[in-house]
Amino acid sequence: MNIKSLLLGSAAALAAVSGAHAADAIVAAEPEPLEYVRICDAYGAGYFFIPGTETCLKIGGKVRTEGQWYDAYNPNSRLGTLWHTRAELRLATATDTEYGPLKTNTEIRWDWNDGNSTKTNLLHASISLGGFTIGKEDSEFNVFTGYAGDVINDDVVYDGPYELNQITYNYDAGNGFTAVISLEDTNSGVGATGSNGEDSSDHYAPDVVAGVGYKAGNFGFKIVGGYDSIVEEGAIKARVDADFGAFSAFLMGGWNTDGDKLNKYAGANGAGDASGIGWGDWAVWGGVNVPISEKVKWNLQLAYTDSKIFAATTNVTWNPVKNLTVRPEVSYTNWDSINQDQWSGILRFERSF
């Protein structure tokens, strides 16, 4: 057998073996198409579709660090300075349904104070659909009226409770008229155990908040009432907002149904000798916001109560670049009934995203 015959025979044998095992050959799978993130602008800026779903997601938050000099809420504070750092993460979702958008709101906060261990707080966690909201949010006694002024120490004179569980219905007529009614958990938030030492161990009735508002052009008016079912008293707040172009301003007044008692909606802020000093029969807040330039704004808030608490706070908000805020603030509080006062200051740096 010559070399030529040997080579031809070997090639034929290899071809036969390859043909016999052709069915076992590995075939690479076709690559699946890549799904890019789609923008979901129906619910506002920042939302995008979660890939593979019809749910829109928005991610946001902030990082804040600030130095504080004394305490506007406490006349006996002698800390000198306190350096406080905070981080917050916000997640919002929305999905279209036959009853309107199904939404969730989640916000988690981490705080670090001058070498203490980090404190974690589930600040907000709620579900909303068709005007109803259920879960943990700030009280509608504050949310509906829009809190107080654009200053850090805005609630030295107590303006209502914040974080608590609730079932809320918000109505918007689309013509400037709005309304709200909320059943709020007596076992969460400030005053949950009774602001005056009331026994709430066998108490199951919710607190109630209701309000109406109307906005026409640059003017708005809202009134809201809250009933503390443990104390069996409550409070009413009314607020007027006005935008004059060169500046904006607000005036808000509150009335306590029993000035001799504290309740969840007419409570007290402060510590030390000022602890437990509430409004008395009434309280009033007012403030102005004056844009100085595109990046600088001056803010002022004043407050006074029937119990002779006077609180004044002013600051300057500077935005050197987008989403970065530098805010120096000075506050003065006087508790005339105990003959004490306090100056305090804050320098805050905050980056939001």
Q: How would you portray this structure in words?
A:
The chain has 353 residues and is mainly β. The chain has a single domain (35-352), classed as Porin. 6% of the residues lie in helices and 51% in strands. The protein has a 16-stranded antiparallel barrel. Strand 3 (81-97) and strand 4 (100-113) form a beta hairpin. The longest helix is centred in the N-terminal third of the chain and has 18 residues, at 3-20. Mean pLDDT is 89; it is low at 13-18.
Would you report the number of β strands? 17
CATH superfamily: Porin
Beta-strand proportion: over 45%
Count of the separate structural domains: 1
Please give a quick description of this structure.
This protein has 353 residues and is mainly beta. It is built from two helices and 17 strands. Helix content is 6%, strand content 51%.
Layout of strands and helices, then pairs:
Elements: H1 3-20, E1 48-49, E2 56-69, E3 81-97, E4 100-113, E5 119-129, E6 132-138, H2 140-143, E7 163-172, E8 177-184, E9 207-216, E10 219-228, E11 233-243, E12 248-256, E13 282-291, E14 296-305, E15 309-321, E16 324-335, E17 340-352
Antiparallel strand pairs: 1-2, 2-3, 2-17, 3-4, 4-5, 5-6, 6-7, 7-8, 8-9, 9-10, 10-11, 11-12, 12-13, 13-14, 14-15, 15-16, 16-17
